[in-house]
# Entry
Amino acid sequence: MRNILSAAAVIIAMTTQPVVAGERAVILIIGDGFDDTHVTMGRNYLKGQAGQLLLDQMPFRGAVQVETVDSEGTAIYVADSANTATTLATGAVTQIGRIGKNAADQPVKTVLESAAAAGYKTGIVSTASVTDASPAAFAAHVTIRACENPVTIRGGEKYGVTFDGCPEDLKENGGMGSISEQLAVANVDVILGGGMEHFIAQYESDPTALALAQQQGVTILTERVALDQQHSGRVIGLFSEDTMPVAWRGANGRIAESIERSWLNHIHEMIGSITQPEIIECEANPSFAEMPSMEMMTRYALDHLSRDNDKGFFLTIESASIDKKSHERDACGSIGEIKQLEEALAAAMEYASDNPNTLIMVTADHSQAAQIVPDPTLYTSLPIPVFSPGKVARIATPEGSVMRINYATNNISSEEHTGANVPLFANSEGESVLSPFMRQRDIYDAMMRYLEL
Amino acid sequence: MRNILSAAAVIIAMTTQPVVAGERAVILIIGDGFDDTHVTMGRNYLKGQAGQLLLDQMPFRGAVQVETVDSEGTAIYVADSANTATTLATGAVTQIGRIGKNAADQPVKTVLESAAAAGYKTGIVSTASVTDASPAAFAAHVTIRACENPVTIRGGEKYGVTFDGCPEDLKENGGMGSISEQLAVANVDVILGGGMEHFIAQYESDPTALALAQQQGVTILTERVALDQQHSGRVIGLFSEDTMPVAWRGANGRIAESIERSWLNHIHEMIGSITQPEIIECEANPSFAEMPSMEMMTRYALDHLSRDNDKGFFLTIESASIDKKSHERDACGSIGEIKQLEEALAAAMEYASDNPNTLIMVTADHSQAAQIVPDPTLYTSLPIPVFSPGKVARIATPEGSVMRINYATNNISSEEHTGANVPLFANSEGESVLSPFMRQRDIYDAMMRYLEL
# Structure
């Protein structure tokens, strides 16, 4: 791994050009579900309670209000990744599930599309499937986020639940097709992430998204080692079937668990005794071994977009599994993904230090279910058992303490999103276009202004 | 109420002086438990999802890492209000429960004490008892926060739990006495809030804290109307027995409730049906009627501290019941308290607009249990009942929507604190001494630097 990264670094050192007048770039890093709780979880684990993340050293920090509406335009206080990525990408406040479409269900031009039309190069990187909500919203337009491929766009059933599909987006109805079909032909110079299953999904004898991309001369990458080389023209890298495996996991695959309650405590929760779950050690996730890291994808994309380019570029990078692992109550998974985000940010900062007109922003799309709670409870002196009604993960931290994470927004296997405003970090280029408090749609405006669009 | 406030405003207009060279003031507003979730709850309710609080319009915004240690110095990831107020007041990172004492249990000089020694006037305002953790930590020093008065300092029992008291702080053991006894004689020009019961608590024939204060010539105020007048010398205002009643409550006193589960759902939570609690309307709390508002106390304190004073002052103002009502799962109570904080901030900003060398900061001591969760769940399409394992309050917002607040950190009648980093807001004076990311102890350093101490 070390050798591969060094090789990539050498290529970048050889190929990035000094900035020329007029050249501008925007790098927007979206930590999915990366709210202040997850930022703090990452800080406590990766740097210690008194330490600082690379994020914490950025000169600009603000807060962003997330907006969502229903079909009547009424405020909805908790978002999903589709409507929020759409707001970041287009400035439109929209309904849950929409990808690149406004509340009235009309396609809206994205910052990436405007940048491409103006001659900027463009790129999308994600640790999810590239057809997932956050990456898709920058270059595709469908009514429901599940319309990821030519089969699912027709609706169907997933986890025993029927979903409608997107009839108005079907090509035969004059639409632009599913997300993978749209990405295959979109004017995007580089797309890297997971999601091969959505590019090979086939409806009857229609061409797959992969075939559509190949017809356009797009170079398709599927192996990590391919990122050590340079390629010309459009590139799509698909390194896993769907979401990419994450870097870390709890030892023995452990995630948050329920408290164990004694027989008496089941009779009445004020009596008997309870046993907290054992402490979890975070460890490397073996399934991650064959994956390119977020940093590696970022370095490749930066090289690809900056090579022979005196106009500049727009690049969006999603760290998807902070959210996905928080849904699953897997705190180690979320923390390992935050580590990946930090490493990708370091690569972006390194690029910006050589290329001053580069605006780097890091934000979240919405907040998430995890809470850091006391270990033990604040109420140890009470003579009754005190415990979370949800599930808890007690994470051993490298500084020798225990960080207890509570997941208690619902009773099913996937937690809810939450509605707190989210953080925004930027390098000093942000100071001219950002404010301490913004709405998510204002970030779209800021990017457009920075790119003079 | 309107007339009283107008009268107060007139007095201030007559008495505040134009700034003179060297005059400096710090106003530190602590929203207890006022994390990004509570800020967002306040914004959504008071200004609407697309609106802005007065806080949101402040030119500086950052994040603050909360630090706590145990007796060995090991990191503890969730704080209480005693150790965090102590860190803000003294720069010392300390143990849970400590008031103005470091981790080794030694008294540490506070910013208020340093300011007073240098000739600044000083003040403390709180909507809690003035002997509660956040106000006390600026002018008192005891080992355990419960040592609020001459009786409790000897230990005892509260809610069926025995507590130790603070033997080393007893006057007969060479200590400084309980919190109320220390405040009674402390060099603080104005102290306003609740807490009369701690000033009249008497141990054997010892003088009460109230008697100690009166011996020193302190003017004691007990009625709201007294704040319409000016007083000379030291003033202590005690307007309620303990914590002051809050401005708002849920109609019919309703707070968050459990989901109602059908008979079948009790057999297995994947079957049967559930009923969410009815929507709650927030309303004025009748018991607040006789209380001075936080704004009124703030205006009085600003007048008292700035009158005939060419040195400047240090004033700390605590909005205590954001936290206290969040512990009780009373979302309307927290929101009404946030409204009070905004009104007090407006009074402070008005003062600063006439007195430019005034640093105003608003921060929180620690984060709190409330979460904004989807209403309904994100998983409506699942054919099973989905519900919070904790308690939920569904708050009707003035913009015609429903904000659902989840409280699910434990099974007892008082929620846990949480461990996310907290926000920091400041006026433009903050730009010279604050950074986008700080530790709580850095805020102490910034105040000392601003006051040239």
The first helix of chain B runs from residue 2 to 15. Residues 1-20 of chain B have pLDDT under 50 and may be disordered. The CA atoms of residues 295 and 343 of chain B lie 6 Å apart. Residues 254-283+372-408 of chain B form one domain.
